Amino acid sequence: MRSEEAAYRGKTLAAMPRTNTIRRSFIRAGIRTAPGCLAICVITYICYHLRLNLSITGFVYLIVVVLQSLVGSFGSSAVVSLVAVLCLDFFFTPPVFSFEVTDPLDILALISFLTTGLVITRLTTKARKANHAAAAAEAELFRGAILDALAHEFKTPLATIVTAAGGLRELGPLRAEQLELADAVETEAVRLSSLTSRLLRTARLDREQLKPKMELTDMADLVGALAEQYSRQWTDRKVSIRKGAAVTDVMGDAELLQLALRQLLDNACKYSVVGSAVTVSIDAKEDWLAIRTSNSGSVIRPNERSNIFERFYRGAEVRHKTPGSGLGLYVARKIVHAHGGSLNLDTGITTDNQDTGFCLTLPLAVREY
Prior knowledge:
This protein is 62% helix and 12% strand. It has eight helices and seven strands. Helix 1 (2-49) crosses helix 2 (54-71) and helix 2 packs antiparallel against helix 3. The radius of gyration is 30 Å and the shape is elongated.
């Protein structure tokens, strides 16, 4: 009985975000439609008391419909057009105060008005969306150019720092603490240079069409090398690998696949709590290789899970806590798709209890005997 109640409660809680989203959508639609409907009511009152005819009132209504289409959606503008037609029919078409229309010319006029209003609304909405899309594309291009420029500007001084840190050891004998400081400077400068290269590569991949250089790649070796790096970098996380597949070879671009895996491990380490476990598992099923990452300490809200792979999208929980561009998962999925695979949120791991997982699948390499 308790298990049934828990299951029912779980289904109810899972349905709540969707219900809230639908309710908010209706409220927003009502807010967008209300000004146009109010304007139609005011114009109806004025035109009726001025004894204006159907033609003049219809043209005034058409101005309101056009203005509504400039600020609202197609749905809200269509509702305003329908309200205008009903007002024309009820107040200005004989017999008045009735929706009955006896004159065929009046029927034609009402149909013409509704058709004109809907066509104008549709064209205006499409033009506005096209302008928004063009502006968004230009903004993304500008943002990518800035990232590209910043990455290039960082690389030169970082190379100088690495060279200078290495030169300190060559100048003469150093005390132990001085040698430790020089090693720390060189190590961190190399790490920052690697991060800058990744930023530059990510910015380019966002704009370019991917053309992977396919070669036989052992994903177990790739994952193992990355896990070792992240274990050294994130000493307060317990990074571990679980290998359940005997064959882990795929045909792919090792550099691109490493970039995608780095993004998953970056997220797992950044958004997990100190002292928690970050696990990478490698499994094979039939002709597919599955690499899963999991961590504890971060929450992806149910209403955000369908958006996390969109360009520049960042969840509400992490937007103000952890720096990021919102490009990582988008580029990682783009890389995996270019290899004929998939990258998705692992619903078997991801819960509302601060557990998050991702599943990356790739086709296994076909071996010739």
